[in-house]
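input
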Amino acid sequence: MPESKGRDHKAAAYTPPRTSKAAEPNPTWWAPVFITLLVLGLLWIVVYYVSEYKYPIGSIGVWNLGVGFVLLMGGFIMTMRWR
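output
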């Protein structure tokens, strides 16, 4: 009579596929740059309001807010990639 192959043979253990690349840490300059961008953007907007719209660059007017927000957004985007 033929023997059953069901329980006598062990199946190979499952090995998950390898990931393509491990997450590398950020360079040492990453954190100081995004913190500087966040602080600089905040200070730019605060100085604009406190100086009654004359500083940091009086000739561009309301675009000072745009410069401040671009600096802030640059800092926030960098924080999303921080490991």
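quick obs: The mean pLDDT is 88.
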